[in-house]
Structures are given as C-alpha cells and as structure tokens.
Design brief:
alpha/beta; single chain; 3-stranded parallel sheet; Rossmann fold; Glutamyl-tRNA Synthetase, domain 3; 12 strands; binds zinc ion; binds glutamic acid; ATP binding; 2 domains
C-alpha cells in the first residue's frame, strides 16, 4: 500500500515552529517512502479562517521545501461529505442536539454531585444535560453530540485500540466515557466539527499514516471510534513530541516570535529550522 499522509493546518494564524516540525516529519517521510503528501486546510471555522493566513501557510511551506501532491483541499468546500456521515450517525440513533453554552456546561459539570469537573480533548467533559431529550427530527440549529456510551455499544470490540509504531494504545469503554464524554460532532448551524471532518477526509484521501502532535492522542480515540462506526479503515498514527519554548510551554498561534515568517525575515535558512526543531538536516 502506498504511504499517504497529510498536513492539515487551520488558517487562523501563522505557521510556527511546532507546525513546521509536524509538516517536515510528514513530508520527508512521505518522500522517503515514495508516498504521497497532501495539504488540507482545516477551515471549517469560517469565523476564524482567513485567506491571507492560508496564503502565508502555503508560502512558508514552500519556503521549507515542502511540496504537496494534487490540489490543496479546503474543508470548507466539503460539507456534502460531512453531512452524509453526520446523517448516517444520526440514523444510527447516536446523536442528540445540545443547546448548552460553555457557561452552562461549566456550571453543570461543577455541581456538587458531579465532583470536580474533568477535562477531555475538547475541554470540560460534557455532563450530559441534553442527552435525555426525546428524539426529534434531524436539525443543525443546535450542536449535535455523540452519545458515546451508545456508540461504544454499537461496535463489536471491547475497547478502542490503535497502533503507533507497532505499539498498541487502547482505552476501555468506561475510560472513554469518563475521559472523553459526548463530544460535539456538528457545531450549531454547521454540519460538522473538527472530529468528524478530519475522519471523513482522512478516509477519502486514503491516508495510511496520520502524523501529528501528541496533544491529539486523546482525540485519536474519538477518531478511531468514528472510523469503526462509519466503516472506515483506521490508519496508523504517529504522535510526535511538541515543540516548546524556553519555559517548556507549548507554542501557540499567537506566539509570533516563533512564526516561520519571522524566521524568514530574520534571514534563517531551512537548515536552521531543522536544527531549531531538533531534526537531522535534510540531505
Ligand atoms: N488543524 C488541526 C491542528 O492543526 C489538525 C490536526 C490533525 O492533523 O488532526 O491541530
Ligand atoms: Zn446540552
């Protein structure tokens, strides 16, 4: 099977060293294996995505010597595919509308009987306030959440497993329910969310290896669950370490001092970037 991977940045800010690290690993691995490397813009959030950031990202990637196969995919143009997957999950009875605000969730999750609110891949674990609403017509004027307990009952295996460089990672049903909870699969007035669109696109592009930061390992459990529910192949996952600043803090989008464009302006070379992220220089 041809090795196929991708880089899926959100055009909501500049590329920084952490992104460059991810893109370089994925790209160089694909090239060394005569595989494919795709570029996909994670731009479903149109309130935050900007065309000028997309331009800056492609320019920075090209400067890094990164080439991609085929056209750049924009998730913003893919709503039909996401909607199909969403309807499928709805028809399986696994989704329910949720009208809670962030503040509502915070209050409900910290109610005395709930104990301390715990965080999952998407922030505070949803306390389940809207889970019991009677089944109504499909609608997207509210967020749609995945009933994770029900979803886990639908799949045959006992737990969610994926492989990373031959090392199995797995989580039991009870752990998934406790540490992930009912995640949002469609945001209000949208027919998708990060989790759903990434899974649909990885499958459609035939991605064999997903390479991304270890901050997304928990999200991977959701992605593997969605693949099982939708009958999609689970790729191999590689979660790399995160690039941190001098204070061991993860780099953030707003951290302009580490933007690739800034390094370019300052006259650094590609080899300097390899050294900065701790990669062997490209030969
Ligand atoms: N846009 C996401 C990010 O930059 C993509 C992550 C992924 O590859 O799944 O975090
Ligand atoms: Zn709710």
């Amino acid at each position: 099977m041809t090795f196929r991977t991708r880089f899926a940045p959100s055009p909501t800010g500049p590329l920084h060293l952490g992104h460059a690290y991810s893109a370089l690993i994925a790209h160089d691995l694909a090239r060394s294996k005569n595989g494919k490397f795709f570029l996909r813009l994670d731009d479903i959030d149109q309130t935050r995505s900007r065309a000028h950031w997309a331009d800056q990202i492609t320019s920075d990637l090209s400067w890094l010597g990164i080439t991609w196969d085929g056209p750049i995919w924009s998730q913003n143009t893919r709503s039909k595919a996401y909607s199909k997957a969403l309807h499928r999950l709805w028809d399986m009875g696994l989704l329910y509308p949720c009208t809670c605000s962030r503040a509502d969730i915070k209050v409900a999750a910290s109610a005395p009987q709930e104990g301390a609110a715990i965080s999952g891949p998407d922030g505070i674990i949803y306390p389940g306030t809207c889970r019991g609403v009677p089944k109504i017509e499909f609608q997207t004027n509210a967020a749609l959440r995945l009933n994770i307990k029900k979803a886990l009952q639908q799949i045959e295996t006992e737990d969610i497993k994926f492989f990373e460089n031959d090392v199995p990672y797995h989580q039991s049903d009870t752990q998934m329910i406790a540490t992930i909870g009912d995640v949002v699969l469609a945001r209000k007035n949208m027919d998708t969310s990060y989790h759903l669109s990434i899974v649909v696109d990885d499958a459609e592009q035939g991605i064999t290896d997903v390479i991304r930061g270890e901050d997304l390992r928990e999200a991977t459990y959701i992605h593997v669950l969605l693949q099982k529910l939708l009958g999609l192949r689970t790729p191999n996952y590689i979660h790399h370490r995160l690039i941190r600043d001098e204070n061991a803090k993860r780099l953030a989008k707003r951290d302009d001092a580490r933007a690739i464009s800034k390094f370019r302006e300052d006259g650094l070379t590609i080899q300097d970037i390899y050294a900065l992220v701790g990669l062997e220089p490209r030969t």
